[in-house]
Amino acid sequence: MVSVRIFQLFDSALPIGSFNFSNGVEEAYYSGLDVKEFIRSTFKSVVLMGDVAAARIAFEDPRKADSLVFASKLTAELRDATRSMGVSLVRLGLCQNDYLNGVLEDKEIGTYPVTVAQTCKCMDIDVDTCLKGLAYSELAQMVFSAVRLGSMDYINGQKLIYSLMEEFKIADEFSPFSPVLDYMSRKHQIREPKVFSS
């Protein structure tokens, strides 16, 4: 049976500050890139190949997964975003274990994919459901950013989410790669004014 707590954990209204971060979407929009294609590419090459793959590792080895995720975020704003959302999730107190307590005590990095995985594990949410929820939440965050910027409407945003979640596949190994995202993030760090922090 599916736990009702899953809906809470992956709700876009969960107060972890995800609305502050676009994961490169804002800079892609201002740079004139096809935002749908940028989201599609980032979802496949960074979310699925990186964050979701790391979350799977984090069920058994959160410290290794934290190191992998943090090292894969090549700009300060991407590192700040993953840590900010991760620590904010832990501060909600949905669940407690040694790793999550370590995040609160600033003994662990606390990246978002890893805190999600450890929260799922603590709440008895199975790995597959957790990974799909993480993929959905990160995809929805990018799509909602695009909607806020006016590059797509809600209906097309929902269609994009549906089509990409249909392609959900767990990567065999952690191997995120997106030079475009890294470049967009580097440009975004010096952009003023801006709507999002990443």
UniProtKB/TrEMBL annotation:
Keyword match Transcription regulation: no
GO molecular function: nickel cation binding
InterPro entries the UniProt entry points to: UreF, UreF_sf
Keywords tagged on the record: Chaperone, Nickel insertion
Pfam families for this protein: UreF
Protein's name according to its UniProt entry: Urease accessory protein UreF
Species per Swiss-Prot/TrEMBL record: Candidatus Acidianus copahuensis
